[in-house]
Amino acid sequence: MSDRTRTEGTDWIRGLHSHQIPPMQAWRTWLLLGGRGSGKTLAGATWLTKVAARYPGVRLALVGPTLHDVREVMVEGPSGVLAVSAPWCRPRWEAGRKRLVWDNGSLAYGFSAEDPDSLRGPQFHGGWADEFCAWRNPEAVLANLRLAMRLGRMPKLIVTTTPRPIPALRRLMAEAGTHVRRAATRANAEHLSPGFLENLQDLYGGTRLEKQELEGLVVENDGALFSAADLARARGNRPATLDRIVVAVDPPASAHGDACGIVVAGRRERVGYVLADHSCRGLSPQGWARRVAETATTFEAHQIVAEANQGGEMVRAVLVQAGCPVSIRLVHASRGKRMRAEPIAALYEQGRVVHCDAFPALEEEMMALGAETGGHSPDRADALVWALSHLMLGHPDGPRIRML
Q1: 20 to 30 A from 241, CA-CA: which of 123, 301, 363, 371?
Q2: Which percentage of the chain shows pLDDT scores above 70?
Q3: Tell me: the pLDDT tens digits for 106-148?
Q4: Listed residue (10, 72, 99, 70) closest to 46, CA to CA
């Protein structure tokens, strides 16, 4: 972003990265998970400034880990509200009352996440919560903030944070109405110190810390089957030809719950290639089935592999009705997710799987498999396991070991 766009704010979208622009579809909570220096603060400050200027008299909340963070980062920081405001619409900070005041009557009050009860009295049209994963008691603060957001037709909340594998974040990600975006530090490289990324890459490349702090992914700890190092090694190019291509589908239990996992993978000799993640959320059975059919056509797949535990033959029926151009193989999960994924994790350790593109949402779910975290179902990762099991293991449910 140019300095002129930062300071004058004449066009609040011009110069912003795609992850810094609010989602087009309806949302109540916009959750921006970003690496260090990815522009999360700028996204939050720009959105809040736009709302305050556009709707005179609006009341907003600013919640940071501490009041010091609210003032030094969210308000007066180099990417804070004062920095992104146009000169003719710049609010003034009233330190004694811990609030920003605009000439059009809009107000934004600052709160510390260290004091959840401070949010019990006031009420707001919307809010910006920064570094959610650094809060001491995120669920209590978020609950009080949500109860205070009771003005207007549809109060909105933007949450910006570098992710950590905490249950509160998992639950927030799984909530209906939450739109999740991810941003790697490299997406904002033009505004970072020269050599910053190269130095951190040298120090932390291929580690969990790189995935969490630089790529903005929720990285699990003990018990996870897929490591950050294995996924970093898996990046590569698609070969000119593939022996076989499949589209694996993990259907959702309902249109309003889990996502429909749709992953495309191929095989050449003894190596598997992950080609695409076309998973989707919130579609009807006809909607996700059409997406599967379109994906199979685009990638010229040889077969569709669909888990049938939830819908049985109905899964096949909706896929056929959607015009799937290839044969459909129904598979049933007779073992738990971890047991099905273990042989696939071994393939990654052996270097026999290549990711032909960046798949942040998929890799995030993969790093959660095996860790008891709760939250939403790993539908993308499940679809990946079905695809690679079918292609690489000779049996869609993976190999079995018989103990004598």
Answers
A1: 363
A2: 83
A3: 999 999 999 999 999 899 999 999 999 999 899 999 999 999 9
A4: 10
Sites in the chain below the pLDDT cut of 70: 1-15, 187-192, 197, 200-210, 213-214, 216, 219-223, 254-257, 310-311, 334, 370-376, 394-404
Amino acid at 33: L
Among 191, 192, 7, 160, smallest CA distance to 83 is for 7
What SS3 class is residue 351? coil
Reference 311, options 301, 302, 321; nearest CA is 321
Task: State both tokens at 40.
Answer: 């999360």
DSSP states along 275-316: EEE--BSS--HHHHHHHHHHHHHHTT-SEEEEE-TTTTHHHH
Helix (H, G, I), strand (E, B) or coil at 192: coil
SS3 190: helix
Q: Which domains does the chain have, with CATH numbers?
A: 3-191 (3.40.50.300), 228-392 (3.30.420.280)
Q: Quote the radius of gyration of the chain (alpha carbons, Å).
A: 23
Q: How far is CA 207 from CA 36, 113, 190, 230, 332, in A?
A: 15, 30, 24, 9, 34
